[in-house]
Predict the structure.
Amino acid sequence: MMRRILILLLLSCSVLSVGAQGYVPTESNLAARKEFTQKRLGIFIHWGLYASYAQGEWYLHLGELNKDEYAKAAASFNPVNFNADEWVAAFKDAGAGYMTFTSRHHDGFSMFKTATSTYNVVDGTPFGRDIVGELEKACKEGGIRLHLYYSVLDWIREDYPIGESGKKTGRKGGQENYDSYFRFMETQVKELLTQYPYTGGLWFDGIWDHKRDQIPFDWRMPEFYRYIHAIKPDCLIGNNHHITPFEGEDFQMFERDLPGQNTAGYSEGQEMSTVMPVEMCQTMNKSWGYTVKDLNYKSTADLVRLLVKAASKGCNLLLNIGPQADGSIPWQSAERLKGIGAWMRTHARSVDGTGISGLPEQGWGVTTANAESLFLHVIAPEALPTNGKEAILTMGWDGPKVKTVKVVSTSVLLPCTVSKDGFLTVRIPQEMVEEIDTVLEVTR
Ligand code: FHN
């Protein structure tokens, strides 16, 4: 089993991506992919001008607003409570290894200094500070990697060929020119990679805007990716296109579902890659950008369990927060970050640096593994039979001899047996069953 884990870990970092026949990642890119899989938790930040309206990042489209009226929010965008160091400290404290920040969402407002237009946080707001720049510095100093979200679809530019969304934002029309728009995107991604060199990855979104076109729309993504990799070969490129990865991508992503699931409807037919890092993104409540009415927060326990389930599939969890217009993190999200951090302080090694164990999912939970240990995550203890004093965990076992089984949070050793007919049994005293996840480390 251990060999299998090692092979899977190596494969995920060293072979070409699915469908990437022409693209050969550099050694530095492969090293970046490997680093990316070593920390299973990332924090996704959806923050832009839309925070001013507190109606989520789709408000320009959903509210059928005029883009010029919407843009007036820039004149009062002044997030005095934004503090990049505090954000990074809170993410690190939660056990995150990276953050992914929306440098520019579909509303076309850039959260960084760009020469392409003054519709950006530095030149177009009283705040006047470079938010991406401050985050890059804080990430670098804090030792967590920065990835940048970038929307390839745009609701305000005249040269963007209008797709399914953003039809009512008041564009004049008749000036669509993808060549021009493509050059604009090239200019902006070059700015991102050169102005903020600590950026480790680009996270694209929006290709689905043209998925129902009669004549298939050519986004020229392989050309775009070649351009990016020529600037920064180790830049990890991922694209939230909801389909099998394209040539030139370095990691695969799933939206709102674990690999293999499709409850949200974004992952139909999307097989999990066995050869490149995989990430899933999910919201803490139901919204990406700050939405004043959305108080539907998942519990800390459920978020930790999601992280554990993702890790058991060899997948990172990119967990979203939508900061408020003043730059502060909603208290509900801050509270969950703290809760996740408290769990991670004692359990991080049962998710970080782990891979797929090769054991099937169990009624009581899931498993993760690294080269030394197997971790049993009991996240549904109600599924374990009990004799009143102990919960009795049994699972099929054809692995090597078990040396020890211990509770990760307390290091208490538990009695265990392996039967001749191949079952591992561990007796967990009821008082040691933990609320979120009882993690047992099996050494062999
Ligand atoms: O339209 C976006 C949405 O606003 C958000 O950014 C999510 C994050 O995965 N992606 C798109 C929907 O697929």
In short: Confidence is low (pLDDT under 50) at residues 1-20.
